[in-house]
């Protein structure tokens, strides 16, 4: 762990307003806009309202292999303090898709915004095939009502395009950061205004819960927190253990039951992949 960055995280959490960085992607594939930008900017406005206990800053990324990671890296490094939490938003299906795992693989089904295509290429040679994300997603999920939880998907497959490329590199090169990835409803969805508003309400709750969780002393060594190096599980054996441990906790049991490991059941990624 990079102790300088870890120290910065502790300091950031101790501040009156911990910093949350949200990245979003530009439009691609001929679309007029990317809904991740719309949602990120609305959340930035709401969460930075007068009296807010957190500060949110957004970072625009190009939908281009490797370039998006470099842009996010640059954005984080030039903040005044180390973010307490970094979350990337990208488009996917027509629901909120909570990512848990990133894969060491680029596989294009169409070009990125600079015309690049890749065919079964490793993102980082010699690195792990799978990396579980390190952010308090179980706790964030449990901030939602039962009805709201029905509107989100706990996913183990973030695609193999720029989203996954960015998330994998962030997780690989900055393991000390609390970093997560959430896919939001795509620009082409029907009833987009209503779906977007519902998503914003869900994401606002989750981000506030993440900040609250990270500011408090960690009391559960099984769940991701800045005071430990726990990541979300990547195997069915890890999940089996967590399901047994949280069997009597209604919400966490629900989270880990709905969370499928890649070697257990693949969560298929449909729709736009950015």
Percentage of β-strand residues? 5-15%
Largest sheet: 6 strands, mixed
Uncertain parts: 267-272
Number of domains: 1
User: Termini distance?
Assistant: 29 Å
Q: From the alpha-carbon coordinates, what is the Rg to the nearest angstrom?
A: 17 Å
CATH names the topology as Aminopeptidase
Give the spatial strand order of the biggest sheet.
2-1-3-8-4-7
CATH architectural designation:
3-Layer(aba) Sandwich
| pLDDT averaged residue by residue | 91
Can you tell me the CATH superfamily? Peptidase C15, pyroglutamyl peptidase I-like
Give the class-level CATH name.
Alpha Beta
Report the strand count: 8
Q: Please, how many helices?
A: 9
SSE pattern, N- to C-terminal = HEHEHEEEEHHEHEHHH
> What class would the helix/strand composition place it in?
alpha/beta
What does this structure look like?
- This protein has a single domain, classed as Peptidase C15, pyroglutamyl peptidase I-like (Aminopeptidase), CATH 3.40.630.20.
- Helices cover 36% and strands 15% of the residues.
- The chain has helices spanning 3-14, 35-47, 67-77, 137-141, 146-149, 162-173, 192-215, 236-245, 250-258, and strands spanning 19-25, 55-61, 85-91, 96-99, 101-103, 130-132, 152-155, 179-184.
- The strands form two sheets. The chain has a six-stranded mixed sheet, with helices on both faces. A two-stranded antiparallel ribbon has the order 5-6.
- α3 (67-77) crosses α6.
- The model is unreliable at 267-272 (pLDDT under 50).
């Amino acid at each position: 762990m990079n102790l300088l960055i870890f120290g910065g995280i502790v300091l950031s959490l101790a501040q009156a307003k911990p910093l949350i960085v949200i990245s979003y992607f530009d439009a691609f594939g001929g679309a007029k806009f990317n809904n991740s930008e719309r949602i990120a900017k609305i959340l930035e406005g709401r969460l930075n309202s007068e009296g807010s206990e957190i500060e949110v800053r957004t970072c625009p990324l190009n939908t281009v292999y490797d370039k998006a990671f470099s842009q996010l890296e640059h954005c984080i490094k030039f903040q005044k303090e180390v973010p307490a939490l970094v979350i990337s938003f990208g488009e996917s299906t027509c629901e909120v898709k909570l990512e848990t795992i990133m894969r060491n693989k680029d596989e294009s089904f169409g070009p990125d915004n600079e015309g690049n295509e890749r065919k079964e290429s490793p993102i980082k040679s010699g690195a792990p095939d799978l990396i579980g994300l390190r952010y308090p997603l179980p706790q964030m999920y449990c901030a939602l009502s039962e009805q709201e939880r029905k509107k989100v998907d706990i996913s183990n497959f973030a695609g193999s395009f720029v989203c996954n490329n960015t998330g994998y590199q962030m997780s690989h090169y900055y393991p000390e950061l609390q970093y997560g990835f959430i896919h939001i409803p795509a620009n082409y969805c029907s009833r987009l205004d209503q779906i977007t508003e519902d998503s914003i309400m869900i994401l606002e709750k989750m981000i506030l819960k993440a900040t609250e969780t990270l500011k408090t002393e960690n009391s559960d060594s099984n769940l991701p927190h800045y005071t430990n190096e726990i990541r979300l599980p990547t195997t069915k054996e890890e999940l089996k253990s967590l399901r047994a441990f949280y069997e009597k906790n209604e919400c966490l049991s629900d989270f880990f039951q709905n969370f499928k490991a890649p070697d257990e059941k693949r969560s298929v990624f449909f729709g736009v992949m950015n």
